[in-house]
């Protein structure tokens, strides 16, 4: 389970094996930057990619057409559909959440 980030300051510590640190130092030197800037730049880039992937929804052409069809021609409301809000507010729709 993910742990919550500590937001009380701008410092962050990282424990890595010496061989991995050496790789990071070499890469930073090749980019002509220090280790902090190198790690920050690349970790932010990776974080943005993870967030983009999690927030982006890509539909197939078939699914896109189905969504457009339902939006243009919504199904008619049934009695049970119209009664759902009152059941939900009373808690009978989800008894464990009431």
Short descriptors:
mainly alpha
Any overview of this molecule?
This protein is mainly alpha-helical and 98 residues long. It is 59% helix and 0% strand. The two termini are 27 Å apart.
How many strands appear in the DSSP assignment? 0
Give the termini distance in whole angstroms: 27 Å
Segments where pLDDT lies below 50 for 5+ residues? none
Helix content: 55-70%
| Sheet with most strands | none
Mean pLDDT: 84
The helix/strand class is: mainly alpha
Number of helices: 4
How much of the polypeptide forms β-strand, as a percent range? under 5%
The rough form would be described as: elongated
Give the ordered list of helices and strands: HHHH
- Round the Cα radius of gyration to an integer and report it: 25 Å
Question: Short description, anyone?
Answer:
This protein has about 100 residues and is mainly alpha-helical. It is built from four helices and no strands.
């Amino acid at each position: 389970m993910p742990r919550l980030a500590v937001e009380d300051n701008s410092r962050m510590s990282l424990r890595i094996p010496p061989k991995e640190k050496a790789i990071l130092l070499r890469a930073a030197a090749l980019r002509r930057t220090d280790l902090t800037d190198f790690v920050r730049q690349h970790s932010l880039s990776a974080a943005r990619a993870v967030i983009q992937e999690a927030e982006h929804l890509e539909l197939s052409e078939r699914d896109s057409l189905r969504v457009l069809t339902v939006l243009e021609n919504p199904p008619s409301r049934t009695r049970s559909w119209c009664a759902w809000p009152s059941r939900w507010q009373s808690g009978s729709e989800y008894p464990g959440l009431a």
